[in-house]
Amino acid sequence: MAQISVQDWIRPVVVTTRGQQRLLVDTTAAKWHLFAGVTWIVLGIIAGLIYSLVFLRLYPHEGTEWLSFGRIRMMHTNLIAYGWLVNCFIGMMYWVVPRLTGEPVFNHALAKLILVVWNAIVAIVLVGIAMGHAQAIEWGETPFFTDHLIVLGVALVVVQFTWSIARSREKAMYVTLWYFTAGLVWTPLVYVMGNYLPEKLVPGTSGAALVGLFIHDLVGLFVTPMGWGLMYFFVPVIAKKPIYSHAISLVGFWGLAFFYPLNGVHHFLWSSIPMFAQYGAVISTIAVEIVVTTVVINFVMTMRGEWHQLRESLALRWFMVGMVNYFITCLQCAFQTTLTMQKLIHFTDWVVGHAHLVMFGVFSFWIVGVIEHLWPRLTGRAWWSRRLNVWHFWLWVVGVYLMFFDLMIVGVIQGISWDKLDPWADSIFYSELGWFLRTISGVFITLGVFCLFINMLMTMIKPTSQYEDDDYVDQLVDKTAASGA
Amino acid sequence: MERFNFVFVVAGLGCFALAFVIQAVLPMAQYSGVEVVTMEQLSQDVPYQFEQLAEDYPTEFAAAFPDADFPTMPEKFAEALKTGKGSYVAEACWHCHTQQIRRRDPNKPNEVSGVGGDIQRWASDTASESIPAEYFNEMNYPHLFGTRRVGPDLFRESGRHSNDWHLAHFWNPRETSPYSVMPSYRWFFDDDQGLIPNKRGLSIVAYMQWLGSWHTQFAPTKYDNLPDVTFFDETDYPEVLIEVDDGGDEYGDDAYGDAEEDY
Fold first, then answer.
1. Separation CA B71–CA B44 (nearest Å)
2. Phi and psi of A238, rounded to 5°?
3. Can you tell me the distance from the alpha carbon of A185 to that of A348, in angstroms, rounded to the nearest whole number?
4. Are A181 and B8 within 8 A, CB to CB?
5. Residues 16-35, chain B: which have Cβ within 8 Å of A?
6. Do A133 and B86 form a contact (C-beta atoms < 8 A)?
7. Which residue of A has its CA nearest to B11?
8. What are the chain B neighbours of A60 within 8 Å (beta carbons)?
């Protein structure tokens, strides 16, 4: 076997599908995107923890305007959405997309630009919200003047990756790329629709229908396709087993594409938006839950006979716990979206618990699983401490279930208390224990994310041992030999 | 079905467009006849609480809204509404307070309490659930429906509490509502005792007192006699609103524009 240095296997130059000698995977960009993402989620989770204190009537920084609790809440969600999720998805696409297409991304210099521009945008958004320039759109509280920048940033990302996918001469387009392609088209459309139209053109109830679409589509048409795309790539790669059924993959993807965008209005059920839109949203939401369950089945069947791998592979453990959470979310959503159930749980903490199970218990878990797998391969160094990663896993698992079940119960209690017309104060009193437990779960989650951050940092700056991906080196040697280099 | 172009066009553009038409364009089309009330029209109807602020806090009011005289009152009120809504958005009030009283279950038109007790709890004497026409004005770019209700709904807040109650509440919510978890908003005041509201303080109170004021009958005040003030006349409202105001059969009219389908 030819001697291959760490640098070579981290940044290999290979022959593309168009027969050119190119650097295929920009691991530097991937690495820094992931690190930036994790830095933002540390801040985002601290923001969430501080925000939860308000419900315990603890006001540690009363009178500090820029740390007002409402602003902290918006920082929490925006840091998670635009700091953590977007950064990590971009970073992981640098790893995945060129591998599947055999073509590098548009431009490696553009990668550096995107890294700087996107994180500058997140910082500006943060400052903008702190200074009181938020926009009244849920998940889109980014100040209106930053919306233009975000559209620009998203456009750069779209060009960067769509280029690679569109130019590929690979005969088959793998499932991951269906999801990524669709996600790359949907994301800019969703963002422009949700942030510009209700702000300037469409007022009131009509605007609410649009904002409902935006809230939902940001999760459904940006986060979900990216997340599933990553799963379709990493689960087979790590478990060393092909995906169970191509047919189910097709059903899952096209079901998502068709039904998911139709769900928007279910965020405003019983509101003054026309009932036909509400009925449509409810029905397509139930449809979407059935469809995505098929995808979960696809992965569970892929893992059949391989469950013992969960003992060794932390990455697979993150993926599969996320998968279970996804199933719980789906099942819950199919029930909670009905107009009957909405009477009880709309406006309550139930929804907050649901949102955390999706964005945190599913997609953040998957992302952490991928980081678990990729970080040694991006830095060329073995994890600083495996034990810390295991701690992270259990802290987050305990944290997410404590939060989810706690908020679910509190939500039902609140709903009942409102419905039987108790004095408003009672719904606060009934929630106090639940809100306390929620903060405790936040402490678990915060400690967990510290484990991740410290571990990633120490892996970079204080390496204990080199990491070599044997399979990958072999593969590279083959390719290098084939190209005659 | 597994080619780049097909996924790009059909899944990416096609499915998105289909959903956009069904979930956004059709609702928009349904309300295309509802006129959007401009800021200028809105502010003609100055709630008495705003004038009361001018009387009770003369120095602070003059500092915040210089040259506020009765003919210019609507202008100042418009300014206060914009500033007030600005604070409402910036402080994420809308993440803990809703601005919608959910509609009645079409299958239970005679239910008094409404969905989740909404109507019995939040509706006022003169208005029931919130209807589209109430949102078609310049103060609703974007709308502030809200998705979480930690504190009370605010869509019929006007007149429920006095100005002073609101100011005390913003200074320290637990002074007026001992159970409240709401944080205090010290920066709505210029002193360290909560006695001198600044422009933001006066404006947020004005905004609170505006919410739902379109359903309130104001007692005549001395300003009503001023010849050059045209207070907002009932006929200035979009037609659908007036019908609800009449207190007649709400389900006979076409407040949603979709009466036939729903009721």
1. 10
2. -80, -40
3. 33
4. yes
5. 16, 18-20, 22-24, 26-28, 30-31
6. no
7. A257
8. none
Q: Which residues in A lie closer than 8 A to residue B181 (C-beta atoms)?
A: 54-57, 428
Judge: B23–A281 Cβ closer than 8 Å, yes or no.
Answer: yes
pLDDT band of B106, cuts 50, 70, 90 = confident
SS3 A381: strand
Confidence class for position A483, pLDDT limits 50, 70, 90:
very low
How many whole angstroms separate alpha carbon A133 and alpha carbon A66?
11
The span from the CA of A202 to the CA of B23, in Å, is: 14
> What is the model's pLDDT at position B219?
54
CA nearest A269: which of A352, A355, A345?
A345
Do residues A35 and A453 touch, judged by C-beta distance below 8 A? no
CB contact under 8 A, B18 and A261: yes
The amino acid at residue A256 is L
Torsion of CA B92, B97, B99, B101, to 10 degrees: 160
Does the distance separating the beta carbons of B15 and A258 come in below 8 Å? yes
Nearest 5 degrees, angle CA A447-CA A453-CA A455? 100
Is the pLDDT at B252 greater than 50? The verdict is no
Nearest residue in B to A73, CA atom: B92
Complex prediction ipTM: 0.91
Please tell me the predicted confidence (pLDDT) of residue A63.
Answer: 86
What three-state secondary structure class fits B137? strand
- Please report, as a single letter, which amino acid is at residue A421: L
Locate the domains of chain B by residue range. 47-262
Interface contact flag, A137 B142, Cβ < 8 Å: yes
E strands, A250-332, are none
pLDDT in tens, A412-446: 999 999 999 999 999 999 999 999 999 999 999 99
DSSP letters of A157-177? HHHHHHHHHHH---SS--HHH
* Torsion angles phi and psi, residue A15, rounded to 5: -90, 125
3-state secondary structure A322-372: HHHHHHHHHHHHHHHCCHHHHHHHCECHHHHHHHHHHHHHHHHHHHHHHHH
Task: Burial-class residue B160 by CB neighbours within 10 Å (0-12, 13-18, 19+).
Answer: middle
Nearest to A266 by CA among A371, A369, A339, A349: A339
Interface of B with A in 82-141 (CB under 8 A): 86-87, 89-96, 98, 100, 102-103, 105-106, 113, 115-117, 120-121, 129-132, 134-138, 140-141
Question: What is the pLDDT at residue B174?
Answer: 94
Q: How many CB pairs under 8 A join A and B?
A: 262
> Residue type at A129?
I
Tens digit of each residue's pLDDT (9 = 90 or more) over A138-178: 999 999 999 999 999 999 999 999 999 999 888 889 999 99
From B7, B20, B129, residue closest to A178, measured CB to CB: B7
What φ, ψ does residue A334 adopt, rounded to 5°? -60, -30
Question: CA-CA distance, A125 to A111, in Å (whole number)?
Answer: 21
Evaluate if residue A484 carries a pLDDT over 60.
no
* Minimum-distance CB partner of A73 among B13, B95, B120: B95
Lookup: tokens for A430: 């009934």
pLDDT at residue B132 greater than cutoff 70: yes
What residue type is B16 in one-letter code? F
Residue A152 one-letter amino acid: L
Q: Do A456 and A38 contact (CB within 8 A), yes or no?
A: yes
Fold of the domain spanning B47-262: Cytochrome Bc1 Complex; Chain D, domain 2 (1.10.760)
Closest among A353, A338, A461 to A406, alpha carbons compared:
A353
pLDDT exceeds cutoff 60 at B239: no
Stated pTM of the model: 0.90
| Band of pLDDT at residue A8, cut at 50, 70 and 90 | low
User: Which residue is closest to A67 within chain B, CA to CA?
Assistant: B91
Are B180 and A415 inside 8 Å of each other by CB? Answer: no
